[in-house]
Amino acid sequence: MFKLIAFIEGIYNFIRFDIWRITEYELTKSRRYFYRVVKTIILATRGFVVDNLNVRASALTYSILFAMIPLFALIIAIAKGFGVDKLIENSLQGTFIGQANLVPTVMGFVQRYLESTQGGLFIGIGIAILFGSVMNFFMQVENAFNSIWQVKKSRSLIHQFTTYFSAILIIPLLIVLSSGFSIYINTILSHSYFFNVLSPVLRFGVKFIPYIINWIVFTIMYMVIPNTRVRFYNAMLAGILAGSAFQLFQILYINGQVYLSRFNVVYGSFAAIPLLLLWLQISCLIILLGAEISYASQNIKNFDYEVDTKNISSRYKNFLTLFITHMVVKQFEEQKPPLSSEQIATNYKLPIRLVNQILNQLTEVAILIEVYHDSSKSKTYQPAIDINQMTVNLVFEKLEKNGAELFLTSKNELLDSFWQKTLEIKKQSIEQTNHILVKDI
In this predicted model, what pLDDT tens digit does every residue of 64-83 receive, in sequence order? Predict the structure, then answer.
């Protein structure tokens, strides 16, 4: 019994502390991949709980219900311009085969929605409402992804419009390619000489097409939607996992309709509505979990020495603050390219989360300044003041004065007297070391 308890405690300590104290530089190539997988699972699971993905999925489900008709209407309207609207409608019906009872009703709503926006004096208002509804839905999705990625700033309205409209144009293209490929195999290729030999492979390929399309769509989604730079490998990893889970859930949901017949007894003709809500809720959950996986896999290094970073002493944090400031200043003095937080963390083997915290503090007190690059969505850092005036004391003085103070001393004479004495002691210490520049350390 004691051995079992000790074993469980060992696993807990390894997951909670030890695994985050082992950096990739200390591991062999094979163990490095294993540790990455374990860390990604831990971080994605933690993100599922901390980011309240169940609540976010419910909010997205609510948004989708309002945006579903306008979104389908916009996709079909674009498809009509290319003459493939019937193909798109049939493909959408095939995609949502799990909601077979609702598909004709929804398509009827879509047709009436399009008719209402195409006639009369209100054509401009109808189109504006159509685009506004779709844009609002995509903004809700972006906010959810940005929250997972801890991005505080959303895209500009113009950038949002161009990005989302491009996505709407790509969706019909993927549907047409998928349907066209299936039609080609089932008609022309089926009469070819090699079909009998290759038919098992081709049949498997046809069945595998939905997975590939899901992988592509989900990968693009995880790369494009967050307002930050997402590496292709991390987006693809999440896209494959989430896309496969989504397709498997589709199959399970369709096959499980038989076992959900009790809803028909309770709800009658309304049974399709709770089933649709269930499908949307779980689908949104899969999508958001994929976003967590892409974030976790790309930011594993951010969590190295996580517990130790939270418990860091003031003295050691001051040392690292001065060191990082010195490196940025020297880079500027030697006219070398400015450093990013990733470069500082990699070059000097520092926890990137701690590096980001220190850089944010130095930027907040105007010791350093951020240089944002739109093309790469990355930030580098340069001195915000003359490096020939930047002394060690100036750096720590700005950091110490950051925040509220002097809101209690006037209410207590003893407190006020003690404050003045500490200022005198501080002044004497500053006078002895005030000549030391950060660049000269």
Answer: 877 777 777 777 776 666 66
Output phi, psi for 350, to 5 deg.
-110, 150
Contacts with 258 (C-beta within 8 Å, 6 or more apart), sequence order: none
DSSP 8-state secondary structure symbol assigned to residue 407:
S
Angstrom distance (rounded) from CA 261 to CA 312:
58
The burial of 186, by beta-carbon neighbours within 10 Å (0-12 exposed, 13-18 middle, 19 or more buried), is given as: exposed
Alpha-carbon torsion (105, 106, 111, 113), positive or negative: positive
Q: State the DSSP string of 250-275.
A: HHHHHHGGGGGTHHHHHHGGGGHHHH
Kindly tell me if the per-residue pLDDT of 121 is higher than 50.
no
Task: Name residue, tokens 């028909």.
Answer: 264
Residue 254 CB partners (closer than 8 Å, separation 6+): 97, 98
Domain residues of the chain, as ranges? 49-302, 306-440
Q: Map residue 381 onto helix, strand or coil.
A: strand
CATH hierarchy code of domain 306-440: 1.10.10.10
Q: Amino acid identity of 91? A: S
The encoded tokens of residue 392 equal 């060690």
pTM: 0.68
How does pLDDT run across 156-183, given as a tens digit for each residue?
777 777 777 776 666 656 655 555 555 5
DSSP structure class, residue 193: T
Give the distance between the most distant pair of CA atoms in the chain. 100
